[in-house]
Amino acid sequence: MRGVPTLVAPTVPYGSLASREQPVLPAGDGLLLRPWAVDDAPAVLAAYQDPGVRRWHARGMDSVAEAEEQLDAWRAGWAAEREVGWAVVDAVGGELLGRAGLKLLNFDDGTAHVAYWTVPAARGRGVAPRAVAAMTAWAFDAAGFQRLELGHAVANTGSCRVAEKTGFVLEGVRRSVWQLDDGRHDAHLHARLRP
Question: Which end of the chain, N or C, is surrounded by fewer C-beta atoms within 10 Å?
Answer without folding.
Answer: N
